[in-house]
Specification:
three-stranded mixed beta sheet; Rossmann fold; 7 helices; 2 domains; 23% strand; 266 residues
């Protein structure tokens, strides 16, 4: 779950930011939402389900136990829901850094490419020669890409075609599930421990093809929604918009394994 907006509840009982999910809440029942929180969206701890809170706390304690140097996760902060990602990874036990310039990639253990508008992100990336630098960095460093980030890393982008980093051996269709009003929240099985996972889909892309080196961890209607290719983790939904941090914990495990391997080779 994530916040219902007081203003939007007053106007007709919908979540704000055009997500289009019927909330059916009164203004008094609603909680602060995106435009009331300086453009960021996050689930307040008070609305966690007890079983989800237990899973999250258990995963966080297992991931950070005995860790002398917490991993540093950068979140690309050019456009999109980067603040929600930063909070989610901080809650999962990582140190988080917002990245707006190529030089800010230095020293990161992993990078998040958030949801948002992929064409807008491309324009920002191309302005400073950031696109090429980002591609080199993601090719050598663990990366977690969600929604628009999934489009940015795909090898082939359709409907319409657009430039991408070409790192994930997959074909992705933009806005495959319709307009903003067609967005939805589903609870689906995954290969992650802890049972089904709540997934928020907002103008989600669709992965229509994956290569032999891509492992599918979850599906929606037969199409992959969570995949992994070595140190690249990709979701077509928004894990940062729920209280469950199991996807973030999986990425932190990938980052730790990569970092430990690099230390052994140094």
């Amino acid at each position: 779950m994530f916040p219902r907006c007081r203003d939007c509840a007053q106007r007709g009982g919908f979540l704000c930011s055009g997500f289009g999910f019927p909330a059916r809440l009164s203004r008094a029942e609603a909680l602060p939402c995106a435009h009331e929180l300086s453009g960021s969206v996050a689930a307040p701890p008070g609305i966690m389900k007890k079983e989800t809170m237990a899973k999250t706390k258990s995963a966080a304690s297992q991931g950070s136990a005995g860790e002398t140097h917490p991993v540093t996760i950068g979140v690309l902060a050019l456009q999109g829901d980067y603040e929600a990602h930063a909070r989610a990874f901080a809650h999962a036990g990582a140190r988080t850094v917002l990245v707006r310039k190529p030089e800010e990639l230095k020293g990161l253990d992993g990078l998040v490419l958030p949801g948002g508008e992929s064409t807008t992100m491309l324009k920002f990336l191309e302005k400073q020669g950031f696109f090429e630098t980002l591609g080199e960095f993601v090719a050598a460093t663990p990366c977690f890409a969600t929604c628009a980030g999934c489009i940015l890393v795909a090898r082939e982008v359709l409907h319409p075609r657009q430039r991408s980093l070409g790192l994930l051996d997959a074909t992705v269709e933009r806005n495959a599930y319709g307009r903003q009003i067609d967005s939805t929240i589903l609870t689906l099985p995954t290969d992650l421990p802890g049972g089904p996972l709540e997934m928020v889909f907002i103008r989600a892309p669709r992965i229509t093809r994956v290569g032999p080196g891509v492992r599918v961890l979850a599906q929606r209607d037969g199409f992959p929604v969570l995949v992994r290719q070595e140190d690249l983790l990709v979701a077509t939904f928004h894990p940062e918009m729920t209280s469950d941090t199991r996807v973030q914990q999986l990425f932190l495990d990938i980052v730790r394994n990569h970092r430990n391997g690099s230390l052994r080779h140094d």
